[in-house]
Amino acid sequence: MKITTFGEILLRLSKQDYRRLMQGSRLNGDFGGSEANVAVSLAMLGNDVSYVTRIPDSLIGKACRHSLQERGISLKHVVTGGKRLGTYYFEPAAAMRNSCVVYDRENSAFNELRPGMINWKEVLRGSSVFHCSGITCATSQSAAETTFEAVEEAERMGITVAFDINYRKNLWKYGAEASDVLSRLAKHADIIFGDQEEYEVISGMPRVPFTALSADDSVDNDAFRDLLASISAKYPKCKKMIMAARNQITSGHHTLTGFLFSQGKYTSTRIYDILDIVDPMGVGDAFIAAFLHAWLKWGDDDTRTLLFSLSASALKNSVPGDFNLIGEDEIRMLMDGTLQPDKIFG
Predict the structure, then answer these.
(1) Which of 20, 64, 202, 208 has its CA 20 to 30 A from that of 237?
(2) Number of H helices, E strands in the chain
(3) DSSP string across 155-187
(4) CB–CB of 6/136 below 8 Å?
(5) Bridge-partner residues for 55, per DSSP?
């Protein structure tokens, strides 16, 4: 089954060996971006994936296309135009220092995307799932309008809409209220994914703390169940509501778990204790891509689907760059306990 994803792909520039942006003279360049990350993960899992974006006709644009095509992603409906690809500068976390992201997306090819530029009926023909995220609505008013145009067409065509809330505070600069826009978009979704902060943004309900320090700790399942049930009542179209919870103990040590609320049924799973993190960027994207893959494959086997998604997300911490270059066999081995975490992260 075909999955179509939509969003902005960026050039990521980062320093080597945990240097700060003000240190050294060399930058590593990788392509990435939330919806592109989802597309790559889905392709790595063997899915038929089409990615829709707007890329300039330049050498950087061609390099960007190549990075996606070599992963087996269809770019048939990519729009060519604009003068520049958006970029972001990434300073990795180290010890007790947080990571830092500096965006340079103003006047990018995607930011100038407008309704009517994409024939969504043609793009979505044959798709089973359309995936988008709140980041597209944060970049510009016209990009937000194009996102709603796509989602509304997907609804008319009876296509499952998967929405990653993906709240990025530093991107909302054009005057719209993030909580209002993201909440409206969520009302169109059949599947919603987010972390605790993101669900707080769209619902106004305070998050439940996740403070696990190891895989042996427990969570307050009653509190998470009640919270997701209350949020779900605000979005009656949503059939699958997924929440990721991460506790960042240090830059190299996180705990990670997830919850699923599906038509009144609550599912939780194990906690992963992740040590020696290589790169945490794209962890959420890996989660939702794996969920879509597992849901299309196993349907309403919520326990299996959630654990597969969480395991894929945990593994992403071992892969440098935005893309989760992990296959289904590796994920299932971690799920089953035949691939031990110390062999992945240590």
Answers:
(1) 208
(2) 12, 15
(3) HHTTPEEEEE----GGG--SS--HHHHHHHHHT
(4) yes
(5) 80
Helix axes 302-316, 328-336, angle to 10 degrees: 110
Q: Pull the structure tokens for residue 174.
A: 């054009």
Cβ partners under 8 Å of residue 18, min gap 6: 92, 94
Question: What residue ranges in the chain does DSSP mark as E strands?
Answer: 2-6, 10-15, 27-32, 48-52, 54-55, 79-80, 87-91, 100-104, 127-133, 160-164, 191-195, 240-250, 253-262, 265-268, 272-275
Distance CA 205, CA 207 (A): 6
pLDDT one-digit tens code per residue, 24-55: 888 889 999 999 999 999 999 999 999 999 99
Query: 115 with 145: CB under 8 angstroms?
Result: yes
Distances (CA, A) of 210 to 265, 273, 335: 21, 13, 22
Q: Is the pLDDT reported for residue 343 higher than 50? A: no
For 148, 180, 271, the CA distances from 306, given in Å and listed in that order, are 28, 28, 12
pLDDT at res. 339: 55
How large a percentage of the chain has pLDDT more than 70?
A: 97
Integer Cα distance of 161 and 131 in angstroms = 6
Q: At which residue do the structure tokens 């006047």 appear?
A: 107
Asked whether residue 346 carries a pLDDT value surpassing 70, the answer given is: no
- Is 189 in a helix, a strand, or coil? coil
